[in-house]
Amino acid sequence: MYKESVKVLRKIDWYEKFLSPLKKYFDNTKEIIMPILFKTRNLHIFGVHKIASMSLSLKEIKQPVEADLKQFDQHFRNAMKSNVALLDTITYYIVHSKGKQIRPLFVFLSAKLFGDINEASQDAAAFIEILHTATLVHDDVVDEANKRRGFFSINALWKNKVAVLVGDFLFAKGFLMALENDQFQLIKIVSNAIKEMSEGEVLQIEKARKLDINEEIYYDIIRQKTASLIAAACAAGASTTTKDPETIEKMRLFGEYIGIAFQIKDDLFDYGESDIGKPTGIDIKEKKMTLPLIHVLHKADRSKKRWIMNIIKKYNNDKKKVRELVSYVKENGGLSYAQDALNDYRERALEILMTLNPSPARDSIEKLVAFVISRNK
Ligand code: IPE
Ligand code: IPE
Ligand code: MG
Ligand code: MG
């Protein structure tokens, strides 16, 4: 198995580029092989079809801004450079385990709606994806998640202390890049999003402790922790091609609605069994109550409510009891309720989009909305 994986890695030219520089930080090479095994498995054995079919539709959406995304990759990579070898290794690891990059896509398409993509659009895309990356690195520490994007998470490989510092480093590098290019409008839009994301994450922890969440608070949490950055991506993108404050605000609100739909979808994944490259079935364990559960709890009679709360409070680590609760949520329409809510936010976003002049960029962003709703990871 070990030898096999090294063979695969050699073949895909990752051994020299990827594994060798990592070696000096590990006593045991197998520690490094494992995350790569995850990926090679995904790519070569199990997930080929799934990944290919998903990337096909995303690929189609990305096509009108393909050249810009290529330039983005370079910009993103350069902005994270460090002279500290371990940081450079970790950012190399990050670059090679990239996600769907939907936020830069929202930046570019929002820019394209009102003019030509330019250097400022590039700065906005790089800044926002760096911040997104930083928040994920931190989020995996907070959630004690060991998997991200089909690889081991940074905290799983290098431990929490390194992950916290890498996240901070990324935040600082993002700001420095924006400052070097005098992107003050961008910094303004994004700083607000960072504040909101931190508030959303902490509010979520507060509610997991007190367990006094309701639908309204759920929406506050996801608006802050997730939608704020997608809103910032759309507003920042638009602000690089139009100066009209009303238009920029319109795009911010569009992004907010899509971001809410995006997180509802993400919360639905947690109830599923498919491989999405990160852990599933951990929300109840973490006492994180999301829309499907909040809805069935609200509907339940008093004794059922007590049963549900008791599992969340005392039996959140009991796999059998958690499975029972998950079944209850499914049988009582929790998932379809969340799906309806998701569709509602998609409609709200599309309504805003339809007030804009028709253009190829508008068509692409409409497809991106459809992707966010129907994505399988
Ligand atoms: C994951 O975002 C974090 C959430 C806000 C749910 P993405 O699903 O966009 O993550 P990557 O960048 O594609 O991995
Ligand atoms: C999303 O939170 C990450 C942030 C918005 C910081 P989650 O914890 O719900 O997302 P995943 O499932 O880890 O990507
Ligand atoms: Mg998480
Ligand atoms: Mg989290």
UniProtKB/TrEMBL annotation:
Biological processes per GO annotation: isoprenoid biosynthetic process
Q: InterPro entries given for it?
A: Isoprenoid_synthase_dom_sf, Polyprenyl_synt, Polyprenyl_synt_CS
Recorded GO terms, molecular function? Answer: metal ion binding; prenyltransferase activity
PROSITE patterns of this UniProt entry? POLYPRENYL_SYNTHASE_1, POLYPRENYL_SYNTHASE_2
**Pfam families, sorted:** polyprenyl_synt
Its required cofactor(s), as named, are: Mg(2+)
Give the family, as the similarity comment puts it.
Belongs to the FPP/GGPP synthase family.
- What name does this protein carry? Polyprenyl synthetase
Q: Which organism is it from?
A: Portibacter lacus
